[in-house]
Amino acid sequence: MSVSINIASSSIFKNNDLSRKNSCLLLAKIAVVVAIALAAILAVVCLMSPISYIVGGTLGIAALAILAVTLVPEIKRAPKNLPQGFLNVVKSTYPDVVYNLLVKEHLTLSEFRAVLNILENTKKSGDLESLLSGLPERLARKILRFGVKNLEQGVQGVELQPLEPFLRKHCPFYMLKTLINMGDENILRSRGCDVKYRGCYWLGAAALCGGDNLLGLFDLRVPNIMKLLDKKDFDVLKQHASSSVSLSWNSQDKNVQEIISKLADKCKGVQLQVTSKNASQGVQCLPLDKEDIGKVLHRLCWVGYSWEQLQLVVDMDKFGYWPWFCFFDGLGRMGKNLCFVVGLLCMEGILDETSAACSPEVLLMTLDEIKKAYAYGQSSSGSGKFGRQTSQVTENMIDYLAMFLSPYLRKAVKSKDISQIIDDFIQKLSNIE
Fold first, then answer.
1. pLDDT tens-digit profile of 87-104?
2. Transmembrane region positions (predicted)?
């Protein structure tokens, strides 16, 4: 028992960076546990049975109870370390010294962000150590322990990539979270949609509100259209979007028709390129003629996407994971998989860095890791483990994330059936005004 206590406590001290006062208090509690455990052993050895078993057992149970009360809160407070898949991408992008700092000192995502900011500021001041006072005490201690000179020398003369574009490029769920957070909450309120459903709204309202046959946001045509549309014309279209979910524009509005006609001409050379590029991935490729371009744009304008949100879609296409998102979103018995999966993650705080429920293992997943999770759910062993059919794409993905990556998500779905959660999402979005 004393060995396990030693391992647990040393792990907490290493990862949690407790203050001196808290450390002394924790050590005192652990010392009490060890003393009780030793007393239990002595009771079993020295006293006659059955008294020895009664006394020893009672002391043993007391020791375990105190241990649980002492260590469990500290374990919960332990920082959430960065997942290895994400760290591997960091290693291939940033200098080795940055990777080593993250791994050896168990930096969190917010600490990683602060380190990159302070290293950028060091270029102006030339003195990293003088800037440590502006950091949280816990992070400053980590950098001092790692070695200020070591860090300075390791990044000298290197242009460090800012963290935000790095996260958007390599972490698809982080990018979707960013798109959701960019959404105007006033639009949700005006539609009678609770803000807690914002993830579902921004990733699925375009499809759910207009009938099950619509692709919604995850449509291969969206980035191709947005690449050719300028902001001025987009603003005009938003102003003329009907308040109805109908996919038609006012046919008498010449400005709208001119913009759509101009786009249709520009898109003529894009059609075959889009189709051939994604046919092997099983992605549905639809026409880019004038009528369909008008429908896609009306759908996006009716939902209320901002120009900035749709530029993120263009970026996702540039980064190479938009086609797979479109493929995944359309799978299964009803599609809208990303709307339901990411909508739930957003609602439960799994993707919110400020939430206690935030799970870096999910937020910072790479595309390969997301594909692996999908493939596991499609395998006989995976779907069998979850007790589902392979066609239940949404449920299998959520089960994978909950079982292997996020205890917080596991707790959330344990109390309510995933199918019920999906039905709730559908009902909420179907009632949008």
1. 999 999 999 999 999 999
2. 24-45, 51-72
